[in-house]
Specification:
The chain is of the alpha/beta class and 373 residues long. It contains eleven helices and 17 strands.
Length: 373
């Protein structure tokens, strides 16, 4: 079992990197001059892609296949416009029989739909990643590899992890390093030789050091943490975020609580750091208040003269309609600003309840990040 090695004293350990003065510089080479051009990348972060029994049943077609196209189509334009869209894939692809909570096993078509919706990278280290044991771990990795979907968090063995992790992705000359780990696996042991990234600060410290040696422009951590259905991060989670930032992570994007928690833009060492405590669900069949919607956070990174910084950041809200409410066959994700023509009165009322509750929370606790209209 991994042991937390956190200390709240680390909250004061933000490191300031001082840059040398300009002085007299030699003439730049042609290669150096190209660094004066601004490079940009837009990243989009989404929450938990769940797959409960009701979702599986709703997507099943008469010929035994599964169709999720109507689920994602209203949010696909927003996801696809980002250069890199990242989400938490909180199910396994263990093959039939398919099932939902408490041990998730989704149809392969669900992965295809996530890719078609525009997601470029999927996170697999979460508390449900071992739900279908060795078979699910292996098939989930194999299916993502077969569709050429980059992923991180779970591995077939230590050698594979050493080769693929930390994960690097590059766009327009900006190198981004991604880290992903989970607080646990619901008490299910990880079968050897598979590896699941766990919240062990000793190993995470090694991963951060290795990440730095890979010369990224930005390091982003995606912890799976917190307490379900609670809209404020507990002290322990806040300590983990402080520890990550103090050790050189630039931005922290969290998930697991299945409800939205506030977002913060912090400033330390002359740089801005985004901390997202929880993005909430992306799609699920949960009925508890505040679990029927979520947020997508968008960040723009700009690199110029060898310095990369976050130059813009905002978020959008969306709400999920269930067949039990809509009378339609499938689940449907609606952006908050989407016309209500496709909704009945009950859907409109539930959506407004989600909007009111979420905006009340975010208007009170959000720091330095605006809602995208």
């Amino acid at each position: 079992m991994y042991i937390y090695k956190l200390s709240l004293l680390l909250s004061a350990l933000f490191t300031t990197v001082c840059c040398a003065g300009n002085g007299n510089k030699p003439a730049q080479t042609e290669e150096q001059q190209t660094d004066t051009v601004a490079h940009q990348v837009t990243l989009l972060f989404a929450g938990d892609l769940m797959q409960h029994d009701g979702q599986i049943k709703a997507a099943r077609m008469s010929d035994g296949t599964y169709d999720y196209s109507d689920v994602f189509k209203r949010v696909t334009p927003e996801i696809s416009e980002a250069d890199i869209a990242i989400a938490n894939f909180e199910v396994t692809l263990g093959g039939p029989p398919f099932k939902g909570y408490p041990q998730f096993c989704a149809p392969d078509e669900y992965l295809v739909a996530a890719k078609d919706a525009g997601f470029d990278v999927l996170l697999t280290a979460n508390n449900h990643c071992v739900d279908t044991r060795e078979r699910g771990l292996r098939r989930t990795i194999d299916q993502m590899d077969s569709l050429k979907i980059p992923h991180l968090g779970t591995y077939k063995n230590r050698e594979e992890r050493d080769k693929q992790y930390p994960f690097i992705i590059e766009h327009d000359g900006i190198r981004i390093c991604l880290l992903n780990f989970t607080y646990g696996t619901n008490g299910i042991p990880v079968p050897a030789p598979f590896v699941v990234n766990l919240e062990d600060t000793t190993e995470i410290a090694r991963d951060i050091a290795k990440a730095k040696s890979m010369k990224p422009d930005v390091i982003i951590a995606f912890p799976h943490w917190g307490i379900e259905y609670v809209q404020r991060p507990p002290r322990q989670v806040q300590g983990v975020a402080e520890w990550l930032l103090a050790h050189g992570v630039d931005h922290v994007i969290g998930g697991h609580p299945h409800v939205i928690q506030p977002f913060e833009v912090r400033e330390a060492g002359g740089k801005k750091h985004l901390v997202v405590w929880s993005l909430g669900n992306f799609v699920s069949n949960m009925t508890k208040i505040n679990t029927d919607g979520g947020a997508m956070v968008r960040m723009t990174l700009t690199k110029k003269n060898g310095r990369t910084e976050m130059t813009d950041c905002d978020y959008s809200l969306f709400w999920v309609s269930r067949p039990a409410t809509s009378g339609k066959k499938n689940f449907r994700i609606f952006p908050i600003n989407y016309p209500t023509d496709e909704m009945n009165a009950a859907e409109r009322n539930l959506r407004q309840r989600f909007i009111n509750s979420t905006r009340t929370l975010l208007e009170k606790y959000n720091v330095g990040i605006k809602e995208r209209k």
